[in-house]
């Protein structure tokens, strides 16, 4: 394990950024999102939750997949795929890191999503342990340890130092890059940090939320619960929860006509939208209740039934903080999860 | 944006793309009159005929910019002379607010204009277009309301 | 439970029990103290989940568009600024006045949970306004913030405590709050150079994730099908694939609600990226005021809006920018 004092941190980050693109939480126009490091970037590693999650790196909100060029009566297809250059993501929290494996299940199964895979292979991920999880955090319910996330390397921050530990070869290489800024560490401070975080996490109100009822075999029973009407009543049908969610993976494929051809691109879609999956006909889910139910059934029942019981929620709590009308997955789990009487 | 080579310098000169929304009952006929009177207006002005100036909604104007326009001008009947009696009065309010709003977003003010040109004013039509092209040429290429996906192709 | 909340529940109970209304629209307790959601109550018994605290920022008017189709009368709790939206919806024939029993509800500014989290106030269990301060009890201990640092932006420039429409009111504390000028930030932007303004809006609008929360929460955005959802419109988009689309969406949306926007501030409240969307709407309001005379959308439920009427001597569009100086 090594440590880098906070005043040398910027130098170390700049060193990494000289060899490849470095992305980390950056404050821009008042909000902290992942952004590219440069000397003017307002780095904000202490921010607990970026507004958007880290899934953008592998599954961006919109990306052009191919281009069609029209000349006369001929259509030429331009393959615009490029092997991405290696890049580093710094400061991924435990919840977001878990979301990558949830997305992997979907995008890396046959047929493999080559766009996704290329970016996944090019990335070195440095995670960052949480110091003070908020009340909206419930990653522990999904077996995530916010005090010791994995990744190619793991970081811990205290008042004075950033501690780094490599978990993979990629991680070790990265630690070598910043060798000149670091000093060896015995890991005692990190043990303290972990202890504090785990204590806070254990006391959070939703760390032990009861998920027992969300099982594939209960699919029909849960689907038909009348309580969905009440739960979804205030839903506006916006896509905030979907777009800040680290595990939502639905996309639409659309086309944009340029002057001389067509760009085919994909972009995030939201099951909350009335025009979701509107391909040949109409959205099969005609009411907002059905759309609302779909989102949570997918996260808590459909996905686990497809992928060995893993829930497609990581407890980051972004939807808890961002839903305009304060509807969120916690209310769903609390209302349905532990109770058997409705 | 188009570029032409000027013979002497070999440098490329900027020629703006202009979209002119013209009311069927006045300025569209004004453009005709300008043509038949052999009054010239620049060839880079592309006219879109509309039934009344108030048919033009802000989306039309923004879409024109998206598709590569460097300036957009809207021509209607003189206030009080609308074929549908009051259409251009509404246009006047809408465009006043829209132009101020675009200015507020930092889009150059000269890129949008409204002119009242009657069917009898061929000379005015020609003068207005020449003047507008001059203004937009001075402003240069539209960068602030552009869609790079369209430009990327055009430049190749 | 506060005295005010008790009074509201009492009122709702009477209305439901004597059959005057079929349902009551209010707010329901959430998992935390700070996350009440809008809800409909149909029985007096259901009211035990009713809540009214300083986190009840949601403007309930938008829900009335759907509820209007339901049979029977509906009672609705509206804060002073929400009553403007109600009137505007009546004016646009989106709701029928006679279908609703409006209960004007006291409000002294609603809290902005994001501001609180940024200031380290997490896990709130109770709050109290004392002078220009807000005292919080949280699961981590007591905290105090200046009111200006804790309440929603729209409440800093509150339009006043008067209800534009009401069948009944519940107000205990009648004091007016101190407010600042709602156009000062717009004026500040107007004074900048075009380059500075462009830079400001670029940095703000580039945060947009096209979640459509601003549109879906907006009581003025009541189109059955929005152009941005209509594949036939040519401008439908689910994501911003190019910076142009961020501008297009926000310009068209702001323009479409101009003259109808009551400045209820819901768009800015819900934006997950905290884009100051109210500054777009306020520019239109400010310009309308100075070019066509003072106008407050939703002040009354009749009459025309500035964009559906005209004067024969209105200013010319090319001169409009100078006319507002």
Q: What's the topology here?
A:
The complex is a heterotrimer of chains A (342), B (156) and C (325).
Chain A: E1 2-5, H1 6-19, E2 21-28, E3 31-36, E4 62-71, E5 74-79, E6 87-92, H2 94-107, H3 114-122, E7 123-128, E8 153-157, E9 161-166, H4 169-177, E10 182-184, H5 188-203, H6 219-223, H7 227-232, H8 240-244, E11 251-257, E12 261-268, H9 288-306, H10 318-322, H11 329-337
Parallel strand pairs in A: 2-6, 6-7, 7-8
Antiparallel strand pairs in A: 1-9, 1-10, 2-3, 4-5, 4-12, 8-9, 11-12
Chain B: E1 2-5, E2 12-15, E3 18-23, H1 27-36, E4 45-50, H2 58-66, E5 71-76, H3 87-104, E6 112-116, H4 122-139, H5 148-155
Chain C: H1 3-17, E1 23-28, E2 37-41, H2 61-67, E3 74-78, H3 80-91, E4 100-105, H4 113-118, E5 124-130, E6 133-138, E7 141-146, H5 147-150, H6 153-156, E8 168-170, H7 184-191, H8 194-205, H9 213-217, H10 243-256, H11 266-270, H12 278-292, H13 320-323
Parallel strand pairs in C: 1-3, 3-4, 4-8
Antiparallel strand pairs in C: 1-2, 5-6, 6-7
Mean pLDDT across all residues of chain A, rounded? Answer: 94
Query: Nearest-angstrom radius of gyration of chain B?
Result: 16 Å
**Which structural class fits the helix and strand makeup of chain A?**
alpha+beta
Secondary-structure element series of chain B: EEEHEHEHEHH
Largest sheet of chain A: 8 strands, mixed
Low-confidence segments of chain B: none
Q: Please, how many domains of chain A?
A: 2
Mean pLDDT of chain B: 91
SSE topology string of chain A: EHEEEEEHHEEEHEHHHHEEHHH
Tell me the distance between the termini of chain B: 13 Å
Estimate what percentage of residues of chain B fall within beta strands: 15-25%
Silhouette of chain A? globular
Query: Which quaternary structure do these chains form?
Result: heterotrimer
Helical residue percent band of chain B: 40-55%
User: Order of strands across the widest beta sheet of chain A?
Assistant: 3-2-6-7-8-9-1-10
Measured on Cα atoms, how large is the radius of gyration of chain A?
A: 22 Å
Task: Give, in spatial order, the strands making up the sheet with the most strands of chain B.
Answer: 4-3-5-6
How much of the residues of chain A is beta strand, in percent? 15-25%
Number of helical stretches of at least 4 residues of chain A: 11
């Amino acid at each position: 394990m090594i440590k880098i004092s906070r005043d040398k941190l910027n130098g170390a980050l700049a060193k990494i950024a000289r060899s490849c693109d470095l992305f980390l939480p950056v404050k821009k126009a008042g909000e902290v999102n992942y952004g590219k490091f440069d000397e003017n970037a307002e780095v904000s590693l202490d921010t607990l939750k970026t507004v958007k999650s880290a899934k953008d790196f592998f599954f961006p909100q919109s990306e052009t997949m191919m281009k069609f060029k029209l000349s006369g009566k001929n259509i030429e297809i331009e393959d615009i795929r490029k092997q991405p250059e290696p890049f580093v993501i710094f400061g991924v929290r435990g919840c977001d890191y878990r979301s990558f494996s949830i997305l992997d299940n979907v995008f890396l199964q046959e047929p493999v999503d080559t766009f996704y895979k290329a970016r996944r292979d090019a990335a070195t991920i440095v995670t960052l342990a949480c110091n003070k999880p908020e009340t909206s955090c419930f990653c522990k319910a999904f077996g995530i340890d916010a005090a010791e996330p994995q990744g190619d390397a793991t970081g811990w921050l205290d008042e004075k130092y950033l501690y780094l530990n490599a978990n993979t070869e990629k991680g070790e290489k990265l630690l070598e890059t910043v060798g000149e800024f670091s000093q060896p560490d015995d890991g005692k401070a990190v043990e303290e940090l972990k202890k504090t975080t785990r204590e806070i996490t254990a006391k959070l109100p939703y760390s032990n939320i009861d998920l027992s009822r969300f099982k594939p075999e209960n699919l029909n029973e849960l689907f038909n619960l009348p309580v969905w009407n009440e739960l979804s009543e205030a839903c506006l049908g916006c896509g905030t929860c979907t777009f800040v969610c680290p595990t939502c993976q639905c996309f639409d494929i659309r086309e944009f006509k340029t002057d001389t051809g067509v760009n085919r691109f994909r972009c995030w879609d939201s099951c909350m939208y009335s025009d979701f999956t509107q391909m040949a006909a109409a959205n099969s889910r005609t009411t907002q209740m059905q759309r609302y139910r779909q989102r949570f059934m997918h996260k808590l029942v459909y996905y686990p039934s497809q992928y060995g019981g893993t829930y497609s929620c990581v407890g980051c709590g972004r939807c808890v903080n961002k839903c305009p009308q304060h509807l969120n997955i916690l209310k769903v789990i609390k209302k349905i999860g532990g109770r058997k009487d409705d | 944006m188009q570029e032409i080579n000027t013979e002497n310098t070999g440098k490329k000169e900027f020629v703006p793309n202009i979209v002119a929304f013209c009311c069927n009952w006045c300025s569209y006929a004004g453009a005709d009159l300008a043509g038949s009177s052999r009054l010239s207006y620049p060839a880079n002005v592309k006219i879109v005929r509309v039934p009344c100036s108030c048919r033009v909604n802000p989306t039309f104007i923004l879409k024109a910019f998206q598709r590569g326009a460097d300036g957009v001008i809207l021509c209607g009947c003189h206030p009080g002379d609308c074929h549908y009696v009051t259409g251009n009065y509404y246009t006047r309010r809408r465009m006043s607010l829209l132009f101020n709003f675009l200015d507020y977003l930092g889009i150059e003010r000269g890129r949008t204009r409204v002119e009242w040109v009657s069917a009898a004013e061929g000379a005015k039509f020609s003068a207005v277009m020449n003047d507008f092209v001059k203004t937009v040429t001075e402003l240069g290429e539209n960068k602030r309301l552009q869609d790079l996906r369209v430009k990327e192709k055009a430049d190749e | 439970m506060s005295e005010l909340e008790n009074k509201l529940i009492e009122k709702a109970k009477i209305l439901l029990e004597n059959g005057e209304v079929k349902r009551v629209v209010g707010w329901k307790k959430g998992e935390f103290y700070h996350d009440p959601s809008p809800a409909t109550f149909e029985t007096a018994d259901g009211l035990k989940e009713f809540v009214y605290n300083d986190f009840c920022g949601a403007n309930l008017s938008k829900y009335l568009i759907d509820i209007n189709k339901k049979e029977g009368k509906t009672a609705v709790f509206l804060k002073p600024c929400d009553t403007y939206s109600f009137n505007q919806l009546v004016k646009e024939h989106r709701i029928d006045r006679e279908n609703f029993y409006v209960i004007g509800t006291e409000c002294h500014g609603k809290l902005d949970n994001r501001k609180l989290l940024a200031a380290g106030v997490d896990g709130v269990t109770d709050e109290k306004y004392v002078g220009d301060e807000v005292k919080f009890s949280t699961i981590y201990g007591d905290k105090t913030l200046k009111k200006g640092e804790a309440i929603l932006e729209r409440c800093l420039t509150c339009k006043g405590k008067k209800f534009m429409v009401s069948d009944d009111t519940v107000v205990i504390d009648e004091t007016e709050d101190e407010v600042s000028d709602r156009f000062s930030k717009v004026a500040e932007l107007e004074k900048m150079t075009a380059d500075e303004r462009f830079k400001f809006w670029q940095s703000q609008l580039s945060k947009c994730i096209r979640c459509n929360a601003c549109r879906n929460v907006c009581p003025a955005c009541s189109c059955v099908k929005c152009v941005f959802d209509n594949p036939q419109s040519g401008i439908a988009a689910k994501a911003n694939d190019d910076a142009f689309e961020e501008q297009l969406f926000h310009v068209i949306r702001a323009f479409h609600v101009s003259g109808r926007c009551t400045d209820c501030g819901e768009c800015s409240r819900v934006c997950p990226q905290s884009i100051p969307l109210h500054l777009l709407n306020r520019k239109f309001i400010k310009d309308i005021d100075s070019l066509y005379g003072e106008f407050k959308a939703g002040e009354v439920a009749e009459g025309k809006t500035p964009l559906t009427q005209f004067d024969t001597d209105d200013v010319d569009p090319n001169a409009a920018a100078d006319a507002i100086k």
